[in-house]
Design brief:
The protein is α/β, with parallel strands linked by helices. 32% of the residues lie in helices and 19% in strands. The protein contains ten helices and seven strands. α5 packs across α8.
Length: 256
């Protein structure tokens, strides 16, 4: 896994920046029930999405385990951040109307613990909104994907059916689905080759024979600087049974 303290400096620019953040925040907001007032954004990173959720009128708290990420987030959402292990949240039971987890579960071997903690801190009627199937979203059927097809892959830890099973074990019910485009995430062969060589794919160590072979093949593709199609990311929401938040105090209606 990346050192996210070190990665914080280039994180936003390398992942679509403000356009992608806007698309993500809009999709999250569309899955929140009417009356949602408080939201915990776990693994909030640089706060680029968190800021937009707060701007929609929510009382937002961001939590992250990386100090480097939180330093950047503090410029966007000052006074709303907590340094915390997202698998052991420092909040009482039933503290929030909603919990968001964007581009997180795919990183964790113990993703269910995040879902369990979200269920614990949610109030009755509240929702967890999380991205699912991230790796699959990046496979857009391009020539880059064809070159990278032989690479070794880890089993997806954020597969939609797996996340739904985690939610079910912690008494969260399916509530809605949404998708949003990965603005600025269309890969170019040149960038893909550089990512392969720098260890972006954790099972392709820098300097390994297969790493160099795949990078060289990427560098032979036409249109080295031409972005391929953007990914379409998926969101799911899960509801904690019980009464929901008070009506007419949140950003908008639920999506389903």
């Amino acid at each position: 896994m990346f050192d996210y303290d070190e990665e914080a400096v280039r994180y936003d620019a390398s992942r679509g920046g403000e356009p992608r953040a806007a698309a993500a925040a809009d999709a999250v907001l569309g899955l929140l029930p009417a009356g949602t007032a408080t939201l915990l954004d776990v693994a909030c990173g640089t706060g680029i999405v968190t800021r937009r959720l707060a701007a929609a009128g929510l009382d937002v708290t961001g939590a992250d385990a990386a100090c480097g990420m939180l330093r950047r987030a503090a410029e966007r959402v000052p006074g709303r951040l907590v340094l915390a292990d997202i698998r052991h949240l420092p909040f009482p039971d039933a503290s929030f109307d909603a919990v968001s987890a964007i581009w997180l579960l795919h990183l964790l071997d113990d993703a269910e613990r995040v879902v369990a903690e979200a269920a614990r801190v949610l109030r009755p009627g509240g929702v967890l909104v999380t991205t699912v199937d991230k790796a699959a979203s990046h496979d857009v059927g391009s020539d880059i994907d064809a070159v990278l097809a032989p690479r070794p892959r880890r089993a997806a830890r954020d597969r939609s059916d797996l996340v739904a099973s985690y939610a079910g074990r912690h008494a969260l019910l399916p509530a809605g689905r949404a998708s949003f485009p990965g603005r600025g995430q269309g890969r170019t062969p040149l960038r893909a080759a550089a990512d392969v060589r720098r260890g972006w794919y954790t099972l392709l160590p820098p300097g390994a024979p297969l790493t160099e072979q795949l990078a060289a093949r990427l560098e032979q593709l036409p249109g080295q600087d031409v972005p391929r199609p953007e990914p379409e990311f998926s969101l799911r929401s899960f509801r904690k049974p019980g009464a929901g938040p008070a009506p007419d105090s949140g950003p908008g209606p639920a999506d389903g």
